[in-house]
Amino acid sequence: MKCILVEKIGACAVVEKECPRPGTGEVLLKVNVAGVCRTDLKIVRAGHRDLVLPRIPGEEVVGSVVEVGAGVSGIAVGRRMYVYPGIWCGTCGPCRQGAQNLCRDMRIMGFHRDGGFAEYVVAPAQSLIDVPDTLSDEEAVFAEPLSCCLNALELSGIKPGMTVAIWGAGPAGTLLARASRALGFAADVVDPDEKRCERAGGHRLPPSKEYDACICAVGSAGAYRQAIARLAPRGRLVVFSGLSPADETIPVSFNQLHYREQSIVGAYGCSYRHGEDALNMIAAGSVKVRDMITHRFVLDDIEQALAVVELREGIKVHLYPDRKGIDA
Ligand SMILES: [Zn+2]
After folding, report:
1. Whole-angstrom distance, CA of residue 166 vs CA of residue 102
2. Does residue 101 share a domain with residue 193?
């Protein structure tokens, strides 16, 4: 099969590889579409904490079942499936608290095992979620980035009547803003690019307005400094975007946190249930995603796809095994 392979940090190549076979409890899927995000760019260009090489990247995948491994029941060949990118143990502390994304033994597709930048991908049956018939593959694949946003919104602790501001109007910021609205919170969005801000449905931040939740969907220390200054009493800052190692330490006034009872919480990835919620929200039309797709590429054009992500030329970039997928 054709796939994108990262053998060492800094580059990737289009190669032919033997098609994987599903083991016990696993399913082989023909990839219908894979989303490309900044994390994939990071994996190829700079590496990632969770990356094990050599690796086929791609953690946003929708595919059709072509073969079912031993011990798998209830999954029919031909079904379209969204792949929750994690494999979790189910028994460790974080798993028992419902945070599968923090599983002590977490293995992420595209990081620890091969992902969807390929014609075929193997996934454990445990990680699959049926795509509703009313949803296209292109819409369903947004379930992965949207899941991460739902996890962040959950961790932000916002309740009806509270205010939320989001820094960054890229794919994640846009989905955060749309998901907030779907859940009943009008979000303000901060982005230097007026057009992106508008697409996300954002308003300019009114001067001196404070927020119950501030979420940074851009890996910029400056954004984090602004966001922490905008926290209302009992406000919560969500660390949604990672920072480059050079920027990862930001001075914070602990007295501000103390006197104003504010908190800072990290958000990384998502749990299986967020995938189910995300697919339901997209299927119900409460979070619209189709207009966010600005670029479609085939595997052979991976460098162009990564360049679009790197230069922030589009919003959402999708990758297809071949032209048939794009034209479908
Ligand atoms: Zn676990």
Report:
1. 24
2. no
